[in-house]
Amino acid sequence: MDSLAKFPLILFEQEGGDSVLFYYDHSKRNVYPAEYAYNSYFVHFDKHNEYFLTPDYTTGELVFSNLKDDEFYRFVKIKPGLTRAEVLNPAFDIDSFIQLAE
User: Fold this and answer.
1) Which long-range contacts (CB under 8 A, 24 or more apart) does 62-69 make?
2) Taking a C-beta distance cutoff of 8 angstroms, is the pair 45, 33 a contact?
3) Do 87 and 98 touch, CB atoms closer than 8 A?
4) CB of 75 within 8 A of CB of 62?
5) What is the bridge-based pairing of β-strands 50-56 and 40-44?
6) In what order do the strands lie in the sheet containing 19-25?
7) Alpha carbon of residue 51 to chain centroid
8) pLDDT digits 0-9 by tens, 47-75
9) N or C: which end of the chain has fewer CB within 10 A?
10) What is the rounded CA–CA span in Å between residue 1 and residue 52?
11) Are strands 28-37 and 50-56 parallel, antiparallel or unpaired?
12) pTM for this model (two decimals)
């Protein structure tokens, strides 16, 4: 089974929101329910497993952890951020966005 964590972009529309958008590629973008507590998100990709998005205060990165499969990924915060409409736009090009953000 492929990892659920193969995504280059995570979008939080507001801090403490009840959902998180995960951008996988130009044809797959999913919004998953999330619970916010202790500055972290507990995301439910499916009804059996919780995944964690936790800030690493020493680096400023966000850590995605899938404890079941022992996977960990780090994400950096991009400013200015994106809107949901921009990410869902069919013309959105993740590669160009990443190059501009670097």
Assistant:
1) 62/10, 64/5, 64/10, 66/3, 66/4, 66/5, 69/3
2) no
3) no
4) yes
5) antiparallel
6) 9-11, 19-25, 28-37, 40-44, 50-56, 61-66, 71-75
7) 11
8) 777 788 999 999 988 898 877 767 788 88
9) N
10) 20
11) unpaired
12) 0.78
